[in-house]
Amino acid sequence: HCEGSEALQQVADRSCGHPIPGGVQAILQEFWESKQKQKAIFPSEGIIVYESLSSLGPPFVSYVTLPGGSCFGNFQSCLSRAEARRDAAKVALINSLFNELPCRRITKEFIIESVREAVSSTSGNLKDADDPSTSIGAYHYMLESNIGKTMLEFQELMIVFQLLHWNGSLKALRETKCSRQEVISYYSQYSLDEKMRSHMALDWITKEQESPGIISQELQVALRELEEVRKAGQELRFYKEKKEILSLALSQIYSDQVTTSSWDDQMSLALHGYQ
């Protein structure tokens, strides 16, 4: 698995003791700037964002979000925030370079293989691939719609649908008799922004009223998943978005009940048992 920790560890080992001029963060920036010039991407979409988790001491955790939204974190245990940022940039750079390989582009051959894998993993039927009203057919339709794109680009488009599926919104839409093609066409126009996150957080607040404790349960799962995929050196936006949506829902629930000063205590209680 090219995105896995073994491949990343080999690159990390080889780079030890051999400082890169300008640093890995500068190389990552240059790589994406050159891509933007080739594709004439708008400057607002071209920002690489670093984010460090607040921590009193090591190990430190840092995330880097690439233009388009793909997100990576440091997979090594880091003793400083600067080291965590460098390691996250290294993981993002390796994955960015790997994403340029021909094997990472959606082709007819890639689609056939992916649909076969999806059928075998779900015990589905290959005939379903031609029927967009089925899950396999919808997946086939989305792959066909994005032929020529790289896997990171495809993942960026899929993130909204992954979250809608996790959130239960896709199931609710099916119950209103919307076709999968209609749903795909509608949400393909939308990017994941603060407004969509707020809507999803409100959905979880409703779920919390029906099943008290469900948000903190889901948050514990999301935090565990996020840590696992980060340590494996894999793309982790789906898990990070889940964490942020659930944290937003919790903060809205407690904002009416507690003062800002006791928010950290409430968060600790909500996540009691995660460690």
UniProtKB/TrEMBL annotation:
Pfam families: LIX1. This is Limb and CNS expressed 1. It comes from Anas platyrhynchos platyrhynchos. It comes from the Eukaryota. GO terms for cellular component: cytoplasm. GO terms for biological process: autophagosome maturation. Belongs to the LIX1 family.
